[in-house]
Amino acid sequence: MTTVIILLLVAVIVIFAVKDIRINLVTRPTFSMFKKVLPPLSQTEREAMEAGDVWWDGELFSGNPDWQKLHRFPKPELSEKERAFMGEQVETLLAMLDDYQIVQKDKDLPKEVWDYLKKEGFFALIIPEKFGGREFSAIANSTIVSKIATKSLTAAVTVMVPNSLGPGELLLHYGTTEQQERWLPSLAKGDDVPCFALTGPEAGSDAGSIPDTGVVCKGMHNGEEVIGLKLNWSKRYITLAPIATVLGLAFKMYDPEGLLGDKKELGITCALIPTDHEGVQTGERHYPLNMAFMNGTTYGKDVFIPLDWIIGGEKGAGRGWRMLVECLSAGRGISLPALSTATGHLASRMTSAYATVRQQFGVSIGQFEGVQEALARIGGLTYTLESARLMTAGAIDLKLSPSVVTAIAKYHMTEMGRTVMNDAMDIHSGKGIQVGPNNYLAHGYMGIPVSITVEGANILTRNLMIFGQGATRCHPFVLKEMEAAAMEDHDVALKEFDSLLLQHILFAGSNAGMAFVHGLTRSYFAKAPVCGATTVYYKQLSRMSRGLAFCTDVAMLVLGGELKRKEMISARLGDVLSHLYLASCVLKRYEDEGRQQADLPFVQYAVEHSLFCIGQAFDGFFKNFSNPVINFLLKRIVFPLGNHYHRPSDELAQTMCEHMSKPGVFRDRLTHLCYVDENAGTGVMENAFLAMIDTHEDFKQLRKWQKEGTIAKNLELEGAIAAAAEKNLINETVAERMNQANELRKQAIAVDNFAPGEL
């Protein structure tokens, strides 16, 4: 038997070591099979695949992430001028906003707010100073939008759109010098308000199917005949369209007469058009889930524009899809994560306060374990949201466009925002559902589905984009192998493929072996860049990185092109990648901020939650994989001793709730973006919270006296305080302090009422 095994090993070594044998017996048949199972890529898919950058996602797909590299990424921080803007202009703006008036009555921002936004450069955060803009970093852009969103989602969306995917962003990256000098100064001053029209009635997530057209022809412009485009379009869901003065437009460009060359179909193109140009129609306004930000339609029929209105000039013809994919990272990596993070900051601060102030059965509801479970989830996800916001925006400040990472951020952060808001609403209960000036949750709750929907619907982002791009872009060899398979010279392609295949086989074998070893040893021998409480998390994430890399290789080998259509299967592998990234963000933030001891329970909760989600995703992958034999083997390699990842413990959740329910440095840091308005519901709740904390021991003693019968049990708080004072159990000063706290408590739990006919 030993001899047979040795002979087999020698045969394998010879086959792979001798190049000619390897090519004939392994590479050539594998190459033929690879070309057959290779998933077909449309032109738009290919451009999306090639656009953007591979960043930390590539490390996570490698099976052996370099954690020191993660720690070396610069800590995202605001500059002095950005901090000054936050402390002055942003604070001034927040004081001007009455969100109930904006949303429920005016359906628009007040004129003075519009004027202030334009005057102070809120629409020019990304525009360089030489054009009159603020030239702020991505992290500043994100922080500004987050802070505003805790007061008014309408105002936040209004600010974020001109600084996200739109004319300003596209001009900076692709515009000609003439276009930049024409438009950027007027956009910076607010003389022009931009919008960008991509989505239409028949083209949403499948933007490559847009029916809007631009046909090259001759026409009159400024009194002379020039070569230009005849445009026809119908767009909807376009934010700022109702008030925009300049329209960014995406369309498919055709040249049937060959006026520009031999190519008849040039592809998706983007152009910049003044909205007062002849034929441009600003259509009806939309009303997205009761939100007051400007959103609507735009149309055009046989609108002629000159070629130099194409973004990038004539050279920009047909390059629109690449432009859009590369610039979508701003919306996916900055704006929508900022809104979701704002939800976490607001919900954490206000819900922890409400759980302290609101009493049932004689105690604060925050003492009920059911409430604590939801409150801990709010706090843990808020820590994750802020961590991912910082790291993702930080990547963009490194001048990267990490398309997979920003897709992860868009999907998972908006979904976490939804979870956080749902938990906050559950805890607030009746307080949360009665809309009025003092309800600080209602408009955010209404707006959550908007974030879920825009910049690519979440279902398709998860099921098609994250793993679909990640498996190809981030894998060390797959994209190179696809490129080799597409070569016209078969001999050169085979030689290139042979080199890649050998490396790929070693890569897969290494990941399989190490995944199995780490599974048997519970990652005891895995490397970690730090000592202490978080060491185990680095080791477990490295182990799961091995598992992801190996399972991806097997899935692509077995399913081939079918994997593209097996969305439930691929999405689960995408979930593994996503939670590896989110946990990385948490650990990175913990190190960047000096390993704050008070943060540790939240770090533990966040990473353990991600590991649990990774385990669940792998379970779903194994149970539904098409080949039962391979399914069995994969599960035993990745989890040889079983899947032991679990939800964070109840004890950990209770510790977190204690931290969240105490005024102080930690609570302020966890919720530092939450704007507390002394003249609105957030200020009322915060003041009540502080007052109840200050008098906690007094009320605790009062309840004890009632329980003992020293004071009548059936008295309301006011009566009990009076009775205690009458019996000289408390002095006048204490009684006054308790009455003031109780009055603030009643104001905080009260809901808005409206007289008959007022609504």
Automatic annotation (TrEMBL):
UniProt domain Acyl-CoA dehydrogenase/oxidase C-terminal: residue ranges: 318-463
Protein name (record): Acyl-coenzyme A dehydrogenase
Pathway: Lipid metabolism; fatty acid beta-oxidation
Membership in a protein family: Belongs to the acyl-CoA dehydrogenase family.
Pfam families in the cross-refs: ACDH_C, Acyl-CoA_dh_1, Acyl-CoA_dh_M, Acyl-CoA_dh_N
Species classification: Bacteria, Pseudomonadati, Pseudomonadota, Gammaproteobacteria, Alteromonadales
Acyl-CoA dehydrogenase C-terminal bacterial-type domain sequence ranges: 472-754
Gene3D superfamilies: Acyl-CoA dehydrogenase/oxidase, N-terminal domain, Butyryl-CoA Dehydrogenase, subunit A, domain 2, Butyryl-CoA Dehydrogenase, subunit A, domain 3
Acyl-CoA oxidase/dehydrogenase middle domain sequence ranges: 195-293
Source organism (scientific name): Pseudoalteromonas shioyasakiensis
